[in-house]
């Protein structure tokens, strides 16, 4: 059940991130950071609250497991984003996918 609920938490950060990308008013790197925090916080909370149900009589395990889930998920989210951003940019430049005008993956050069 922990695995299922951790997977379900993706709805929280994915829906928020998709809405912000659609608005096009927030920097992409800020969206990645905030979705990473939402992603890791929701998964950490699931682990924290459900670990005592699955493994009772071990208070420190819930906190330790939640911290591992939080930091591991945040690291995983940032690495996935670092891999995805250049692929998304390349697909947009090659016209394989449509990227809205207000969606910017990188800063403009001020030259």
SSE inventory with pairings:
Elements: H1 2-8, H2 10-23, H3 28-54, H4 59-93
N-to-C order of helices and strands: HHHH
Q: Give the % helix.
A: over 70%
Quaternary arrangement of the chains shown? single chain
> Which residues form runs of ≥5 with pLDDT under 50?
none
Coarse structural class: mainly alpha
Sketch the major β-sheet. Answer: none
- Please report the number of helical segments: 4
According to DSSP, the number of beta strands is: 0
Beta-strand content estimate: under 5%
Structural commentary:
The protein has 111 residues and is mostly helical. It is built from 4 helices and no strands. The protein has helices spanning 2-8, 10-23, 28-54, 59-93. It is elongated.
Task: Please describe the structure with a list of short key phrases separated by commas or semicolons.
111 residues, single chain, elongated, mainly alpha
Give a nutshell description of this structure:
The chain is mainly α and 111 residues long. The protein is 75% helix and 0% strand. It has helices spanning 2-8, 10-23, 28-54, 59-93.
